[in-house]
């Protein structure tokens, strides 16, 4: 590992020497002058005689870099919507190879003319590039949520590519993949189960998030270890100019936030705490008992220098409750994440680096509070180093990683051959990739990932992302991606139990063969004034997926077998944005089929090899979102519709008499009742649809802002089925109409 890091450092200096020439590289950070936060997607332009000669945009860290600038006199213009344009005159001499200029933009009192550079960093539901969507806090704010602010969980469920099992459980399925196949990062470090037991909330509320990169598929080689999707969350730092705080309360949760400078203009701290109230308020608000509770804590210390930005983050989450209030099973899970991150420029070069160090622990259990029947824990330590060289119309990136995982599980014979065990895994690897602009029409992003788990063979994962503009303008674009992916350890769950969200993380449970995937995506984007249209088709082929064996007779234990999955889908979105009006309509089609060999199938079918649709196979999904923000008033509405999810139908019941139990005399016992099942997932639950509405108003004074919000979830009180308990012939419904009023007080 040490020799690998030294090699990478040597390579960076060689590239630095190679890049040094007579041309000048201009680079720097763009931030908000009021709080020091980086601005993603700010336009940076160099002008001569009011003509744009070169331009660029800032990334997630607020970094921009423009290279190969001839010496001379220029006007630097930096602009961002809602901020006053910054202009400065630069004289670039022949003796300067790299010039760093950091810009702090002041908010504008009103919209002014801007210097606009065409950028591919637009965000919103109507901008998807080969599976990648960039999400900002303002996107989350548009989704009605029964709390004082928006949340990533609610926003994800408004997208056609994503399926949630219900309003409780914290399960998110992205384009056919399972939750354990999603790579979720918080400030560069893994978090296993960030979605809370109440489905509207996650560990990522709107007011703590800086930005999110959602890859529904086709992600590049920098990301490894998962085969379905990536949710890369960057948490914001605290205000390094002045102290701020907020407190909020609603029927679902209450919380507080405090932030401010440690060293004004340079170092800051941010702290947040939230805890749920639904367990206490549900009997009065909903007329039913909801024994669900969650809480989360977040802290971040950040230091901003002239050439670097470093931070240390800590997050803790806890969830506990009964998914079905009438069952005795209590689910619990928690996450602990410690993440250190540094991003900065290599001196006198075009290279900037990113270093992440993290520690992660996650645990979940099911059973009684004192002695859970099943439990599983996962620990990880990770280090990764990334370098990026930006040079004119090309970008080269490379890096290396090392991670150690410890997985323990206690399953009490739920799965044969998996009782109590511990797996320890070490994996190292690296990647190289690039971005090339070929003329005005074609962008190519090839990359190659190399992974070496110590218990497996070397894995090579070539990947390619591309974008083609047939008419040379971003108004019409074709995007595509193809790639190979591997996953060393995976989460297993008993899909036979529709009311269970327990997951055990194990190392390649099927003959030590790693799960793998092939992704293929093809999309078209069309801009028509205030409208954006996106149509994207995708195909995923997943291999070596562990699934539980189904039997015609209900059993408490099972074993695992291998399945292959074919996933075909279409994602269509139409987005409208004009001033204070926003509207979005999304339709998703998905077809997921598992193929598995289970010998017992020959008893209830003609062939031991069977195909079936898993329980997250939602065929059609429709989402409509609209928001209106005139001044300090805000209103938003969401309607969603989904066709029924698969479930396994019962054929009937019988009684089982234990022939091995000694009976001393006559008995009237008819034996133990049991359920007889049809082939798995041949039935479909009823369709699902729901209307959510919220409206709020902010009252401002010189020192505080008070936001009062009211709304309702499931406004027309649709009776939606959560799952059907075939053992007790009882349906479990999702939440009825849920009115709420929230109050948030924030210092200015």
Structural overview:
By secondary structure, this protein is mainly β. The protein folds into two domains: 84 residues, Immunoglobulins (Immunoglobulin-like); 614 residues, Beta Barrel (Maltoporin, Chain A), CATH 2.40.170. Helix content is 5%, strand content 57%. It is built from five helices and 46 strands. The strands form nine sheets. It has a 22-stranded antiparallel barrel. The chain starts with a helix and ends with a strand. The N terminus is likely disordered.
Output the keywords.
mainly beta; Immunoglobulin-like; 748 residues; 22-stranded antiparallel β-barrel; 5 helices; single chain; 2 domains; Maltoporin, Chain A; globular
Relevant CATH superfamily of the largest domain: TonB-dependent receptor, beta-barrel domain
**CATH C-level label of the largest domain:** Mainly Beta
What structural category arises from helix and sheet content? mainly beta
Number of strands: 46
Proportion of residues in β-strands:
over 45%
For the residues shown, what is the average pLDDT? 86
Shape: globular
The domain tally reads 2
CATH topology of the largest domain: Maltoporin, Chain A
Low-confidence stretches: 1-21, 111-121
